[in-house]
């Protein structure tokens, strides 16, 4: 399981003791339903936060707006937060291991979505557990995998192994430029964890300065790749990847891609080390 950055928790939330039930008993637990609404302003702010430029009028101008599919992940972030707040895992130690998104149809420019969430799997990694949390609605399905140290050893299945990465030289290598204020901007879309803005909070997890949101980094790579392929970023249909290491605002990253039929496998690298591995997407 690739480790990434701490799972999102509300910034003012108090830590709760873990629920005494074994981690495996969370499998199948219903996390409830929620209706979320958003405006064109929210979708535009999100597009700017993940790297849209002033010339991308169909991402930032309400009269031409197409909503980026990854915006859905900000609307569904409440689900993994709900499991943490119920005591499913220790929010001080857990990390966002990987993310999957399947787009069912285009998000409207403004609207109200009805979301339902549940724990679909809990894998036993020995010293840790991995919780798979699925959020569903008519527009998308998304799964958060949360790596929770200290929650394993309950006798469950270990789960799938890390997939073998692409073989051979990549078809394309593209630069992905983050910017210095990107994490500060992205947190306004909903994930306001202090490690993305406060140097003291970042130091508390062993980082020299605030780090990017993994979901921001993942969304950001889809824009230059779509441009290279001659497709629209809002035509994204599938996206997944494992968060392997933190990214810092202002980092320049290298995106390597390998075509696999309709899908594209990818790896995002910073300073020679993968920050998102096992990536796969389809437009």
3D architecture notes:
A hairpin with a 2-residue loop joins strand 10 (263-270) and strand 11. The chain has 283 residues and is an alpha+beta fold. The protein folds into two domains: 5-149, Hotdog Thioesterase (Thiol Ester Dehydrase, Chain A, Roll), CATH 3.10.129; 172-282, Hotdog Thioesterase (Thiol Ester Dehydrase, Chain A), CATH 3.10.129.10. Strands 1, 2, 3, 4, 5, 6, 7, 8, 9, 10 and 11 form an eleven-stranded antiparallel beta sheet that branches. It has helices at 40-49, 57-60, 72-75, 78-85, 182-186, 199-204, 214-229, and strands at 5-6, 30-38, 95-103, 111-124, 128-136, 140-149, 172-177, 238-243, 252-260, 263-270, 273-282.
Low-pLDDT stretches: 9-14
Shape: globular
Span from first to last CA? 26 Å
Architecture of the largest domain, CATH level 2?
A: Roll
Largest sheet report: 11 strands, antiparallel
Strand content: 25-35%
Please, what is the average pLDDT? 93
| CATH level 1 name of the largest domain | Alpha Beta
- CATH level-four homologous superfamily name of the largest domain: Hotdog Thioesterase
Number of strands: 11
Number of structural units classed as domains: 2
Number of helices: 7
Derived from helix and strand composition plus strand pairing, the structural class reads: alpha+beta
- Helix percent reads 10-25%
Question: What is the name of the CATH topology of the largest domain?
Answer: Thiol Ester Dehydrase, Chain A
Element order: H for helix, E for strand: EEHHHHEEEEEHHHEEEE
Radius of gyration: 18 Å
């Amino acid at each position: 399981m690739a480790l990434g950055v701490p799972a999102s928790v509300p910034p003012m939330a108090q830590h709760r003791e873990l629920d005494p039930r074994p981690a495996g008993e969370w499998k199948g637990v219903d996390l409830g339903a929620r209706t979320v609404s958003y405006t064109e302003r929210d979708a535009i702010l999100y597009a700017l936060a993940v790297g849209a430029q002033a010339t991308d009028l169909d991402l930032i101008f309400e009269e031409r707006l197409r909503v980026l599919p990854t915006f859905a992940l900000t609307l569904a972030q409440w689900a993994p937060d709900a499991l943490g707040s119920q005591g499913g895992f220790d929010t001080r130690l857990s990390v966002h291991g990987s993310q999957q998104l399947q787009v069912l149809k285009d998000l409207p420019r403004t609207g109200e979505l009805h979301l339902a969430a549940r724990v679909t799997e809990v894998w036993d990694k020995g010293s840790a557990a991995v919780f798979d949390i699925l959020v569903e609605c008519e527009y998308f399905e998304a799964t958060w995998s949360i790596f929770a140290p200290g929650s394993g050893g309950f006798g469950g299945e270990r789960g799938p192994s890390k997939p073998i990465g692409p073989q051979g030289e990549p078809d394309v290598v593209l630069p992905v430029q983050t910017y210095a204020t990107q994490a500060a901007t992205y947190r306004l879309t909903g994930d306001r964890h202090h490690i993305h803005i406060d140097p003291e909070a970042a130091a508390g997890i062993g980082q020299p300065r605030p780090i990017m949101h993994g979901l921001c980094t993942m969304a950001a790579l889809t824009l230059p790749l779509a441009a290279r392929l001659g497709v629209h970023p809002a035509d994204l249909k599938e996206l997944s990847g494992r968060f392997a290491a933190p990214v810092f605002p202002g980092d320049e990253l290298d995106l390597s891609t390998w075509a696999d039929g309709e899908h594209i496998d990818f790896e995002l690298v910073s300073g020679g080390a993968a920050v998102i591995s096992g990536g796969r997407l389809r437009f």
